[in-house]
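Budget justification aside, the reviewers requested a transparent look at the raw inputs and outputs of the sequence design task funded under Objective 1. We therefore reproduce one unedited record. The lines immediately below are the structure tokens for a 124-residue chain.
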């Protein structure tokens, strides 16, 4: 399980309050800024959700590096609002799968990555 560190959450750092948080439901997204990226995210235990991700210099690998770190620290990563087809294709290659996720009480399309359970015994 990901542990919160004094300087923020593992891999993603500090998440600042979002001025639009009150319209996003019970668990609002907050602003993050790390490694040439910024956007809106939330951490719930060992799960990380991204509502928006903006690269300062797209195509330079900033998100790839962040994603590697996030996969080490979180059991599940969900990404909402994929507006770029190349980004969506990249996420599918990285093991994300299409799903329907609740956001603000409404089901929305999202891409989800789940850490495989290393302790599951093989099926008979």
């Amino acid at each position: 399980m990901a542990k919160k560190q004094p300087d923020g959450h593992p891999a993603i750092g500090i998440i600042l309050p979002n001025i639009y948080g009150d319209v996003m439901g019970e668990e609002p997204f907050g602003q993050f800024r790390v490694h040439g990226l910024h956007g809106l995210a939330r951490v719930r235990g060992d799960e990380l959700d991204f509502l928006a991700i903006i690269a300062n210099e797209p195509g330079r690998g900033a998100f790839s590096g962040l994603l590697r770190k996030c996969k080490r620290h979180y059991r599940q990563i969900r990404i909402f609002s994929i507006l770029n087809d190349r980004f969506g294709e990249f996420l599918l290659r990285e093991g994300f799968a299409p799903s329907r996720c609740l956001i603000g009480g409404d089901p929305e399309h999202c891409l989800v990555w789940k850490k495989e359970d290393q302790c599951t015994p093989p099926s008979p």
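The longest helix spans residues 62-73. The chain has a mean pLDDT of 83. Computational costs for records of this kind are itemized in the attached budget.
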